[in-house]
Amino acid sequence: MSRWQQLRVVGLWEFRRFFRIRDQILALAMAIVAGVVTAGITKFVEKSGQPIRIAVIHEERMPGITDIDPKTILGEKTKITLEKHPPESEPELRTAIEKRELDGIAKIESDSKIQLVVFKRPIWDDQLKLLLTVARTQSKMKQNQIGAIVASSMLAPPEIDLAFIEEDGKSGRPQLLVASLLSGACFFAVFLSLAFLLVGITSEKQIRVTEQVVSAISPQTWIDGKVLGLTGVALATVFTYALAGAIFLIGLAISGTNLFAKLSFALSPGFLILNLVIAALGLFFWNFFIAAYAATINDPNTSSRSSLMFLFMLPMGIAFMGFEQPDSLAMRILTLVPGTSITVLPMRLVLGTVEIWEVMLSILLLIGATLALRRLAGKIFAMGILMVGKEPSMKEIWQTLRKV
């Protein structure tokens, strides 16, 4: 049996060991149920919700405030209504609030100050503040005889369109969203692989057929097959969660909440392929790192080296810190460093200016580092797999690292 045939056998065995199609179908079914339930509950809440009644007193200090339709300002889904009441009815209105028959009193103390009387802090106070602010503005316009057309022209913000020097499809919200989603999916897959690799590698020290397996295939082929198969399990799980997320978003869209209604997904194929390559390389880079780490411990629950498990989360934080200055010297250096380039490079492709040589060098360095980690993982696995009752010391690991 050739090495590639051995790699295929090990990879498929590891994949089938952890991947259960029944579990994936169950996750999708739960996502469908969650989407349907979410849409149904949202519709039910909208239809069964009681109106939010706000009594307005001393309207003469801000004329016409109750004549405004809240739906024209807050949207059709708002439940807020404004009701005009005489000032002498304030005691009765307060009693109504205590009995939960009224939600609040908007007491107009002057044309620039309104006191809101409620039983407890409401969740709709921001909407009411916006409504009263617009109502006050319209009241002021009427008092000063300013026409609606003139006022809307004065208050309307200018429309600003971004015009890029090079329309190459590399800038904009869709590109940033795709880069962020792929980076997030990569690190989610690494997080899943962490669990699979720790179990898949450390458990080999506890079974009695390890010596026979090592005599049949090389440790390098064994670790390669493990990483390949367990990475496949992680990617399949990520794909299942992605489908579940899509179903959940469809449920939100059915209920009237479309998060991406105004987003155009005009993407350059080259941009998408480049980000896929970076994400794939990043996934294997960190998975070989985790494999090398897992080969040095006996039990992840008791090992003193457990803190290294979450080292892969550091690059994500570094990328977020560089959003404001993507072309700074620090970000340019981190673009070339394997590990951080996985998130920094996609971010700079969207928000900054990246030279072709930077992209090529970053990818080449990432490939080289991944191959080096693969070799290191194989050597450490070969050294540690037959150790029972002890973990390789740092001196032994360093000697292995020097050989690599």
Automatic annotation (TrEMBL):
Taxonomic path: Bacteria, Pseudomonadati, Planctomycetota, Planctomycetia, Gemmatales
Record's protein name: ABC-2 type transporter transmembrane domain-containing protein
One GO CC annotation: membrane
One Pfam short name: ABC2_membrane_3
Annotated keywords: Membrane, Transmembrane, Transmembrane helix
Membrane-crossing residue ranges in chain numbering: 25-45, 176-201, 238-260, 272-295, 307-323, 356-373
Source domain of life: Bacteria
Stretches assigned to the ABC-2 type transporter transmembrane domain: 26-373
Any GO molecular function: ABC-type transporter activity
Membrane topology value: Multi-pass membrane protein
UniProt subcellular location: Membrane
